[in-house]
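Protein 1 of 2
SEQ + STRUCT:
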Amino acid sequence: MAENKIFAGPKVRRIRNGLGLTQMAMAEALEISPSYLNLIERNQRPLTVQLLLKLAAVYKVDLDELQGEAGGLVRDLREVFADPLLAGELPGEQELIEVAEAAPNAASGILKLYRAYREQAQRLSDLAGLLAQEGHDTSISATRLPADEVREKLERRPNFFASIEDAAEAFHGRLSPGDDLAGALRHWLRKEHGIAVRSLPVHAMPNLRRRYDRHSMRLFLSERLTPFDQLREIAMEASQLALNAEILAELDALSLSSREARRIARFELARYAAYALMMPYGAFLSAAQRARYDIDVLRARFSVSWEHAANRLTMLVRPGATGIPFFVMEVDSAGNRLRRAGAQGFPQARFGGGCAKLNVHSAFAQPGQVLVDAAEMPDGGAFLLISRTLEGPQAAFNERVRRTALLIGCDFAHRDEVVYGQAVAGGGLPALAIGTACRLCERQGCLSRAEPPVTRPLGLDEMVTGLSAFDFQ
């Protein structure tokens, strides 16, 4: 037991300062030299068990306080420094432990400031949404990563890149793939660029969807991917070679601020090009109109997944040959919005997509089923909404399945042109009363409300309790 050592110098210093003692006075009471106490307080000497017992006897110190780490503070500080604004500031966790132990009051102050910052950032974000809803542009935003910049650029513009579409159609025509686009692309990659395509088992490539080996000139695809997703990966690789000039031209037009943002955007444009190659514009638009935008019919016609066909519907805005302006939003089971896009830009101001009552959240309870709703906004605007779950890469027995849900919608005025409009035509379904987001919605008595609106004072009446968890006046 005598060999057990504990380094707790900052805590000893706080005890001494709290009692108003000098190092000499405390050292005398503990029967050690002032120089030794000084080394202890600087963590250059340990607290032995005998000294711990002496501290407890002389100053009534709680031994658990001396021996235990400031775990709660460290955990909270770890969350603070995980924020994109502060990420990379600390080389490791040891500094967090030192701050929590040496200056717990300062650490608590940091936490209070950070919480206030987050709350104000949320309020500013809500205010920005409210101003946008009323038609006012605003630059108010939270901390932005390169990915945030790319997402904002793509969400605020039509999901259409004319030069990529034209080049993809021409490339598809030269391939003449018939019913085997994957085979035609594999042949083209090998013949024109010497690139072979191979599938690898999970144990050989456990964490990647695909990998291009420049040395061996091979494109490796994970066997976790469905045949549809493997086709998209092959099409992305081919597009980056055959449509490189068009992709770079569209990338330059986005005017991004950093190399990292350009790298992310280039990947997004390559994925767009893959969709354009898999589902050529003219043929896809014609098929979509004949099928009344039935996504299941389109996925079978072009041998793609439900996700691919739904995403392609948002891209049909070529001048002189436009389809219905669809928009999409993808979420996970925790409600995180992963992606938003639309033919005319995601209708953030009119639709929002932050309402808990949207059928995209209900889709997780019915995997694989297509859910249709007519949704009405507080201002009277209405949307036709279609949602379905999407399955991620194949999971192993001991892994949790990655499942997200995709919402695809359009203005309710187009319901007669869309096969899904049958489900809500003639009063088949009552309109779902939704809002842009809880903090911007003033619908009273909403059972799904998660936050009070920023535009109304809370109605705190001890004599009355409303249906919502947050009553307001």
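Protein 2 of 2
SEQ + STRUCT:
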Amino acid sequence: MSNSWNHFGVRGSDGMLEALPLRTCIYRSDWLGKRGFGFRQNPTDGKPLFRVEWCTLNLKRGEFSETLSTMPPEARRYGTSVSCGNRIYVLGGDCRGDLFCPDGKFNNTHLHNCVFYFDSARPNCGWKRGPSMLVSRWFPSAVAAGGKIYVFGSSRRSEGYFAEVFSAELDRWDLLPEPPVATGLVPESVSDHVLLDVSRSRILVHFKSNNSLQAFHFHADGGSWECVDPEFGLWSEASVIVGDFAFFYFDFGVDWAEQCVIAFGAYHLVSKKWFPVEWLSEPRLIAAPFSHLFHLGGGRLCLFFHYDGMDCLEYLTFRLQFDFASGEIHAIAEPESVITVPFPHFSCQVLEL
């Protein structure tokens, strides 16, 4: 794999995703170990406690590239990364109030609405500041479709509406319509992860307040909401759509999984029914605090584990097999697919491809 800058991962000749772009948070070495990770006042020199860098993870070899890009010190941690057209955007984040705070709120912990982008068509220009979001957000849920970025949640209700959209063509943010009023539906309880359902031109949004599944249909008239399933149930950040199924990896007990510590589930988007996914091979999975699920192509998926603040990350690849006669779905790990990679950084986020 080349160490040249690549925003959107690396795909092989068969179209399979072979490398993932990662945004990493690296704390200053002269402050590591002093009063814990990040939960402290700023150093007296007023410099940021961390820097944000980009690299790629080669999934076949389990290796990181060299640093591909370093974001400007004004960029905040705990923002969300998403690709749109030729650009990668980093949205929002939180701040400890260092001297590089984009809005000058020094020594004041707060959320941000700042936006930074990198244009792959002009790589020598580096990172640029884009139009700020209308609402300050911490790790918002975001997806890109049709030259627009849709952002949901992770804001304080007093600061504005819970969802907005950015038009790359107009270089402008606009508010999205709120979902219709429904019993127990609280807009700020939107899930930590939303799913882009490309074939149906919609974004699936889960609400924790009543465990319902809603869909935002994006179209020329500004978009509209539909209740997909008022009793959808549990949701997981580790989720992905493959064909007519949305797959979910849970690392806690759920009723239909007989109180297993971990479990897979598949939700059929047409029949609106749940199907269990049985893990048939070694290794047996263990619960992890941060996990992500990616579709590599075909029937292959990647389950990615990161332990925030630890010195390693893990991932494994597996295949799905459908037995439509029995209604069962099987997940089978590929041989020698479990890989542990030393990871000296404090945290990371995989780009939403």
